[in-house]
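Bug #77: duplicate submission created two jobs. Keeping one. Sequence:
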Amino acid sequence: MDARAIYDILEKEVIPIYYKRDKNGLPYSWIRIMKGAMKSVGPRFSARRMVKEYASNFYQDALHYA
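Kept job's structure:
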């Protein structure tokens, strides 16, 4: 049932937005959605966050044994 719902959303909503292009061939609706997605999840997947997390979770403990 979940797979069917995902395929329905892809077929009826996502794919048509991707292929809807303006006169210059750009999918503006798709670009808007992707920029929104990048803005909302970017902080969770940034290199800065990763380095900070590694430093606090792994390297800080190693300093105690040095």
